[in-house]
Specification:
2 domains; alpha/beta; 12 strands; binds (2Z)-2-iminopentanedioic acid; binds NADPH dihydro-nicotinamide-adenine-dinucleotide phosphate; seven-stranded mixed sheet; Rossmann fold; 17 helices
Length: 444
């Protein structure tokens, strides 16, 4: 297998899917050597089955707004691979959602889920529905319309959706409600559910907390204390909020947050009280991060990202390709020591190159943001057993899983000079488990 040839073939067969090509190539480059040590993989043409999703559903979602106007959006579910467990992955509602973006996310999810130690395959779904400015009843009707099509293709042992950008506890609740009505079954088909109907404690916090647990493991390898470190965080949604919460708890100082309109820089640091304000602003009022700057009198920069500010650690928690090569160079020039990704594929290939050339601690999202889906996996276990674990039980399992992922990255990613290439480590560790399972199950 030659990574570049596989990529060229995928580009020819699936043109104009830039994000999908980007995600696939990053993995192929990392696993090329290991893959080629196993002639049985090549003989079974494992690589094509690994890169191309098992199936893709795409469908029309029609809904009526509060004024009585009818709208149509596209809905999708990409079931990428169920070699190690039922398909599992989030649902994204954002105007940018396309088959390419969901294919990249489902592909990444397959390797991420493999790293979690739990039995989950990879999937992703979503819609180009834009939740901004929509009322709660409009969001509910949209979720119901989306599920009235998708319900046939999901189930507790088939495919278990959850949240992602634009989809949080409220949306999961609406989707679960419609799913339950159509199937007449109360099962653990969604994760990220409310605590009163099968949700797990710590699931809302899990991605952000897990991101910081992973960062702590990386810092430990260099004997660096997180206390007092100034952190550049992007995004202001679920992952950004709980990344900040854990950073504050650990004694670090988050100084930035952002949304699609711009970023705030608070040199005094985002405190617990200010973070509570952000949670309310975003969850209850669906406001803009610029309002933070108005409330606390700090700097706001419109139409920009925070990577030009000075900080010790960067935690991108908004979206894909939000750090480009130039921004990565600015981070390095400003003395950043570690980058821990809460978002999926936030760094472009050029940015990753810059971080790795500078020998920084750099964690790719599929390792550092795996805490969210890990606690989703724990929610599935609790649902199957019809029990609920305590906060402490879930949090300690989450910690253990993040430490385990870190260990595997070190095991498979340590280079001759001792530098830990976390991209390589995560990709190889994730790949090996999936490949072995696929080989055992025959050509299907
Ligand atoms: P939310 O919808 O809660 O928050 C998303 C945040 O990112 C918002 O602040 C949003 O700003 C910003 N954002 C979204 N798109 C863009 C864009 N194109 N440009 C600039 N800013 C943008 O989503 P999550 O916090 O759940 O997800 C954030 C990232 O984390 C995503 O990459 C997601 O895939 C990843 N992730 C999420 C997990 C989870 O459990 N939720 C698990 C693992 C990874 P605005 O409000 O202006 O759109
Ligand atoms: O990207 C991700 O890992 C998620 N959005 C969470 C998926 C999940 O099933 O909890």
């Amino acid at each position: 297998m030659k990574a570049i040839e596989v990529l060229e073939d995928l580009k020819r067969r699936f043109p104009h899917e830039q994000e999908y090509h980007q995600a696939v190539f990053e993995v192929l480059e990392s696993i090329e050597e290991v893959y080629n040590q196993h002639p049985e993989f090549e003989k079974a043409n494992l690589i094509e089955r690994l890169c191309i999703p098992d199936r893709i559903f795409s469908f029309r979602v029609t809904w009526v707004d509060d004024k009585g106007n009818t709208h149509t959006n596209m809905g999708y579910r990409i079931q990428h691979c169920n070699a190690i467990g039922p398909y599992k992955g989030g649902v994204r509602f954002h105007s940018s959602v396309s088959p390419s973006i969901l294919k990249f996310l489902a592909f990444e999810q397959t390797f991420k889920n493999s790293l979690t130690t739990l039995p989950m395959g990879g999937a992703k779904g979503g819609s180009d529905f834009n939740p901004k400015g929509k009322s709660a009843t409009e969001v509910m009707r949209f979720c119901q319309a989306f599920i009235s099509e998708l319900w046939r293709h999901i189930g507790p042992d088939t495919d278990v959706p959850a949240g992602d950008i634009g989809v949080g506890g409220r949306e999961v609740g609406y989707m679960f409600g419609m799913y339950k009505k159509l199937t007449r079954e109360f099962t653990g088909t969604f994760t990220g559910k409310g605590l009163t109907f099968g949700g797990s404690l710590i699931r809302p916090e899990a991605t952000g907390y897990g991101n910081v647990y992973f960062l702590l493991e990386m810092l430990k390898t260099k004997g660096i204390d997180i206390k007092g470190k100034r952190c550049l965080v992007s995004g202001s949604g679920n992952v950004a909020q709980y990344t900040c919460e854990k950073l504050i708890e650990m004694g670090a100082i988050p100084v930035t947050l952002s949304d699609s309109n711009g970023y705030i820089y608070d040199p005094e640091g985002i405190t617990t009280e200010k973070l509570e304000y952000v949670k309310e602003l975003k969850e209850l009022y669906r406001g803009r991060i610029s309002e933070y700057a108005e409330t606390y009198g700090c700097k706001y920069v419109a139409n920009a990202r925070p990577w030009g500010e000075k900080g010790d650690i960067a935690l991108p928690c908004a979206t894909q390709n939000e750090i480009n090569g130039e921004e990565a160079k600015a981070l390095v020039a400003n003395g950043v020591i570690a980058i821990s990704e809460g978002a999926n594929m936030p760094s472009t290939p050029e940015a990753i190159e810059v971080f790795q050339q500078a020998k920084l601690l750099y964690a790719p999202g599929k390792a550092s943001n795996a805490g969210g889906v890990s606690v989703s996996g724990l929610e599935m276990t609790q649902n199957s057993e019809r029990i609920s674990w305590s906060t402490e039980e879930v949090d300690s399992k989450l910690k253990w899983i993040m430490q385990n992922i870190h260990e595997n990255c070190v095991k498979y990613g340590t280079e001759a000079d001792g530098y830990v290439n976390y991209v390589k480590g995560a990709n190889i560790a994730g790949f090996i488990k999936v490949a072995r399972a696929m080989m055992s199950q025959g050509i299907i």
